[in-house]
């Protein structure tokens, strides 16, 4: 699979070290993320105005306005996008200030790129679960899924999913950008006494693809399905 074909999330990277910024950007984009770089405290607000992000990665010591002040201003403006500070600041006072302002994670430099990826994945998954708990989840573009009503809606139409379709979609959403095995989908969507088959699963996946788009649910032969 070529991960660059699929966007796992849009990242705003605030880092004034151009070399480090490029290294982080290339590493994350190899994993399938879309990374928008910013290099100072003024540019970051321009990027936020132009784009919608899934996660912020903020250095603290950057020109014009530091990362702490930026996040404090965003939180006061009711922007609660998950945020990780990546910084050389290592004192307990700095750590306390970061979490008091409202960051979600704090990674001290120097760090391993694999650790950064792990923290991003964990934070995005936790954020999705929290959004699911609020019932209405944005899938992509203008398409939303309402968990309690099992309703898939866009600005032009809405569809009530069948019980099995809704259970399959919920399982795929909770494990977004990860392969969900056929066995897990069978256990999730079919009752204990129900007969199930791969053919019946494909039928329900086909119905969901008609609503979401064929390229949004990927099939991995002999493994399962993934919602991108």
Task: Give a short synopsis of this structure.
The protein is of the alpha/beta class and about 230 residues long.
Q: Rg from C-alpha positions? A: 20 Å
Portion of residues in beta strands equals 15-25%
Averaged pLDDT? 87
Number of strand segments? 12
DSSP summary: helix tally: 8
List the helices and strands in order. EHEHEHEHEHEEEEHEHHEE
Main sheet attributes: strand count, strand direction, barrel closure: 5 strands, parallel
The secondary-structure class comes to alpha/beta
Dominant shape: elongated
Low-confidence stretches: 1-6
Span between termini: 12 Å
Strand order of the largest sheet: 2-1-3-4-5
* Helix content range: 40-55%
Outline the secondary-structure elements.
Blueprint: E1 10-14, H1 18-31, E2 34-38, H2 43-50, E3 55-58, H3 67-76, E4 83-87, H4 92-101, E5 105-108, H5 113-133, E6 136-140, E7 143-146, E8 151-153, E9 158-160, H6 163-174, E10 180-181, H7 182-189, H8 198-212, E11 217-220, E12 224-227
Parallel strand pairs: 1-2, 1-3, 3-4, 4-5
Antiparallel strand pairs: 6-7, 7-8, 8-9, 10-12, 11-12
Helix pairs in contact: 6-7, 6-8
Describe the structure.
Helices cover 43% and strands 21% of the residues. The protein has 228 residues and is of the alpha/beta class. The strands form 3 sheets. A 5-stranded parallel beta sheet has the order 2-1-3-4-5, sandwiched between helices. A 4-stranded antiparallel beta sheet has the order 6-7-8-9. It is elongated, with a radius of gyration of 20 Å.
